Amino acid sequence: MKISLLFFLFSTLFYCDNIFCQQLDKQSIADLQVSNAIELYDNYNSENAPLYTGEAYVFYTMRMEGSPYFKTGDFTTGWVSYKGRKYDSLKLLYDVTRNLLVTMYPNNIYFITIQNQFIDSFSLSGHKFISLEENHKENLYTSGFFDLLYNGNIRFLAKYSESLMTVIEGQVIVTKFMNRDRYYIHKDGLYYLVNNKKDVYRVFADKLHELKRMMRRNHVKLKRNNFETAMVKASAFYDQITH
User: Fold this and answer.
1) pTM of the model
2) What stretches of the chain show up as alpha helix (H) in DSSP?
3) How would you write the pLDDT of the chain (243 residues) with one tens digit per residue?
4) What is the DSSP code (8-state) at residue 96?
C-alpha cells in the first residue's frame, strides 16, 4: 500500500495537462505540483500528521464566571503553522488560561492540544498569533503567543493571560477568570510595554504632535474601554506619519 501511495503521489507531482502547462510558467507549475502532492498526502495521512501528537485536552468542569478561552468557547476554523508547515481548515480553540491551543482529531471525537514548542503561528477568529521567545536584547521579558493586532513598520501586539480565583458563594464553589492582558509596541527593534495613553505617547514621542493631531481629526481617543482598537488606529497613523 505504501509503495502504491508513493507512486500515486509522484505521478501527480510530475503530471500536467499539455494545454494547461502551456499557460503557466515553469515555477508556477512546480509550485502547483508540490501543493497538490502535499494536499494528497495530507488526505491519506491526516490522522498521523505531527500536529496530532499532543496530549488529550481536558475541559473545565467547575462552575465558572468569565471564560478561559479567547473570544469564544466554541471551536472555530483557522490555521496553524507547525514546524514551518501550514495546516489549513482546522477546528481550533485557544485556552488562554492554560496557554493551550486545542484542535479536533480528524474524526471530530477527540480533542488534542497542539505542542506549543512547535507552533510558529496560528490564526482563529480573525486574529493572527505569533510565537515569541523571551529576548532581553529586544526588551522582551516574556515568551508565548502574541496577538499581532497591527503589523506595519511598527507592530502592536497583545499578550493575553488570565488568572484563576476560587470563591465560595453560598454552598457553591465558583471559579472566576480575571484578565491580565498586556500590550506591546515593537519599534526600532525594541519592545515597549504599553498599558495606557501615557506609555503610548512616550514611545511615539518623536512624532507626538503630528500623531495627536491626526488622532483628533479622526476622533480616536485612547481610553481603557477601547484601548486595543484605538491603538490599532494610532499605530497605523504613526506609520503614515513616519513613512
Assistant:
1) 0.78
2) 2-14, 18-22, 26-45, 197-203, 208-217, 227-242
3) 444 444 444 444 444 444 444 454 555 655 665 565 555 455 445 555 888 889 999 998 778 888 899 999 999 999 999 999 999 999 999 999 999 999 998 777 789 999 999 999 999 999 999 999 999 999 999 999 999 999 999 999 999 998 888 888 877 888 888 888 999 999 999 999 999 999 999 999 999 999 999 999 999 999 989 999 999 999 999 999 998
4) T
